[in-house]
Design a protein that fits this description.
mainly alpha; elongated
Length: 143
């Protein structure tokens, strides 16, 4: 198994860059605008609060984006924490819902797609290609 120092990038020390404060404010202003429209459409009485928040975030993002730095840092940390939790859960779900059933079905059907079974009577495991591939001379300087 590969050790952590065998990878191209250091996954444990790599932290994604935080987005700009202006973009953070404008995205949240847009999100609160969507909540405002949904509140109006559904007839709830919370839509004015969402509208005020949307306007506040938009104004601060455009005039003084540095004021959003603490919220942006907090949101960034929340995203990193969420990624550390959701990624393993998602990978486990993919493995259990896709890889495991496929492997079980292939075993029940006695399929060996990778031809991993040992054949003592085989002269070679080489698979002849028809039509043949490129000439061996073309493989001298691959990189």
């Amino acid at each position: 198994m590969a050790k952590s120092h065998d990878f191209h990038e250091r996954l444990t020390t790599h932290e994604p860059a935080r987005g700009s404060d202006r973009n953070f404010g404008l995205v949240f202003a847009g999100f609160f605008c969507v909540l405002t429209v949904l509140g109006l459409w559904q007839g709830t009485d919370t839509w004015p609060y969402w509208a005020v928040l949307a306007a506040l975030f938009a104004v601060v993002a455009l005039l003084a984006p540095q004021r959003l730095t603490p919220l942006n840092k907090l949101w960034h940390r929340f995203g990193l924490l969420l990624g550390r939790v959701v990624t393993p859960v998602t990978m486990l779900a993919v493995f259990l819902l896709a890889v495991t059933p496929t492997a079980l079905i292939l075993r029940l059907m006695r399929k060996d797609l990778l031809r991993l079974k040992w054949d003592g009577n085989a002269r070679s495991y080489w698979i002849e290609r028809n039509p043949p591939g490129p000439a061996p001379d073309t493989m001298k300087f691959q990189f």
